[in-house]
Amino acid sequence: MAKPVARWWPLAALLLGAAALRLGTLDVQSFWYDEAFTPVHVLHASLGATLRAVVHHENTPPLWYVLIWGWSRMFGTGEVALRLPSALAGVATVAVAWGIGSELAGRSSIGRRTSIVTAALVAVNPLLVWYSQEARAYGLFVFLASLAMWCWLRADADPTPGRLTAFAASGAAALATHYFAVFLVAPMCVWLLRRRERWRVTVPAVAAIGAVGLALIPLALAQGGHGTQWIGAWALAARVEAIPQYYLTGYSGSPLGHGVELAVALVILVGMGYGLWRALTPQESDAALLALGLAACGVLIPAGMAVAGADYLAPRNVVAAMVPLSAGIAVIVTARRTGQAGIALAGAIALAFLALSVDVNLSPRLQRGDWRGLAQAIRAEPAPPAAGSPPAARTGALSGGERAVTAAGAISRGVRGGGPGGLRGGARVITTVELGSAPLEYYLPPLHNLPRGASVRVSEIDETGYPPLLPGAGEPPAPGFHLVEYKNVNGLILYRFRSAAPRTVSEAALREHVITEARPEVLVP
């Protein structure tokens, strides 16, 4: 019994560490826009209504939504409940990464080193941890794409019917989870077809994956890229630049500055440079090229399509390519001739990633916007204005470069009795950036869009958003209102205005007076 335990304890330790990183702080951050959009606008009592919402409101395939619909029927739509499947998928991806490293480097002692380092990098990488804590399809996408890669490597080494069936099933499931899986799965299929003498066994598996891909085309056309307008508003060069930045310091790492980013990059480059300088064996070279080539396909093919005019490239959409990238790095850094120095350099890379992941879990400035905290501030009675409270706009920037156009939202009356999560008190209006509309609908239910041209009668107007703010922020949004509170909730701004008596405010006026540049929306109970 001692030998099997000694063989598998590193994987067990890595799985426990990955679980601690993902599960231990699963409820720390509030939902941001995309996460809140799912329970507010997509999940319904019936599966049919949910699938119709996927067609009309989403831009990804249906598998994750089917799974999360069934999950939410059992466990509800709370933050932990909706994020837990992604967290479990993230932990399982670590085990798959172990298998990928083993298949790439062979089952020798050197292959074992590669397995450990590949799994370790996947376990602690801040970008992969981030999407393991998000109530969206990305965690499942990463897991299934990685599982398809592992099955593909096994099928390529020995194309038995069982291994090819496993590849076909995992590849098809990845496609049914995220459209960008095609940029990883299609190259795997082409690679399997390179040897004509194997076509008798490989063609059926590839054809099965192709059939699933073709079946998804009508859905993709019906969805028409819902909610992807922000991609075109973000310069393509900046998006391409953000992809390695995200891998190095995570989705929210930009506040750390380029110094931290360069330091992490330097550790990786030194490790890879040392491995290449010591010279890889032919087997190691093939393994590194296979992993890095697959990662390149996952990024460069959609980048080329974006240049050609089919622009859906966003750093989050290529997150699954970071697993083969990690595997390629592991193969080079832990090559046979690097010895103990290679192990030390691999450990330095993993420690850098771990430090960043822990920092995100502990630092509000690196986390998702605190819309839960902002909702609590809105429900609370205003504190007396502090001396020197700034009524004017501030400047700043969103992390990661993924800025969305902003919008205004409104609530006409609070929920009487102040039920859980609901508004209390008298009539009020809330204006918010677009990224805050779904979270505030989630944390301050129930809301819906106010029709164009309508008016609401309120005695309080709460304006919310994040920097950079417009010059008029802090000024009364309508005659008769005056500022009674300014609050900064971990970077989210609240200006509270009140009037001595209820006043009628038009929907058009609410749309015109916002604290950020905005494509306005108005929400009411």
Characterize the structure shown.
By secondary structure, this protein is α+β, with helices and mostly antiparallel strands. The chain folds into 2 domains: 2-222 and 235-366, no CATH class; 371-524, no CATH class. The protein has 20 helices and 6 strands. It has a 4-stranded mixed sheet. It has a two-stranded antiparallel sheet with strand order 2-6. A hairpin with a 2-residue loop joins β4 and β5 (492-506). α1 runs antiparallel to α5 (79-105). Mean pLDDT is 88; it is low at 392-426.
Structure characteristics:
525 residues, 2 domains, 58% helix, alpha+beta, four-stranded mixed beta sheet
In short, what is this structure?
The chain has 20 helices and six strands.
Give Rg in angstroms.
25 Å
Number of domains: 2
Count of DSSP H/I helices: 20
Q: Main sheet: which strands, in order across?
A: 1-3-5-4
Outline: globular
Summarize the SSE layout with pairings.
Elements: H1 2-23, H2 33-42, H3 47-57, H4 63-75, H5 79-105, H6 109-124, H7 126-131, H8 138-157, H9 161-175, H10 182-192, H11 199-223, H12 229-233, H13 236-249, H14 258-277, H15 282-308, H16 322-333, H17 339-362, H18 371-379, E1 428-431, H19 434-443, E2 448-449, E3 455-465, E4 482-489, E5 492-506, H20 507-512, E6 523-524
Helix pairs in contact: 1-5, 1-6, 2-19, 3-4, 3-11, 5-6, 5-8, 5-16, 6-16, 6-17, 8-9, 8-10, 9-11, 10-15, 14-17, 15-16, 18-19
